[in-house]
Design brief:
Elements (H helix, E strand, L loop, with lengths): L1 H17 L4 H8 L3 H8 L11 H13 L1 E3 L3 H14 L1 E6 L2 E6 L3 H12 L6 H11 L4 H23 L3
Antiparallel strand pairs: 1-3, 2-3
Helix pairs in contact: 1-2, 2-3, 4-5, 7-8
Amino acid sequence: MMKIKNAALRQEARNLILRGVSRKEASSRLSVNYRTISLWTEDLALPRHRDTGKQIEIFEKIKADGFYIAKGTDDLNTLRILRHRKGIKIVHAADAHIGILSGREFDALKGLLDYRYKHGLTKQRLEELGRAFGVKEKDKLKGLLVEKQSKTSDSYNKSDQVD
């Protein structure tokens, strides 16, 4: 009888671990010594790291928007973890730490400009940001500058008009 109960507990422990529950949590849930849980599950191939909710949230924002601006030390530390696990880049530009996906540097730069630079972007500042983001195509940067300047002049023209 005892062997059947142990076999069932062992299988339940293995199932919990495979679903992502920590060994410590499985030990607590099943009221079995931590070391016993470790012995029962030592042969399982487990991921070394599990992504936290915050890491998943920030990575999804980076995938959707092309960039994520760290809003504090916790966000920056999360970006550093994602740099190693997901291959994102961390750029220090515009007085902020910004996480971007490799290969989407131009999209990230464009998104940052729309987010941070509504008016007053100079050619020199755009080139600095382009270098920080790793955008080497001068034609693309020139096109961005023209686009930003036309948007700025349009908004000035609209504000000058009197109804």
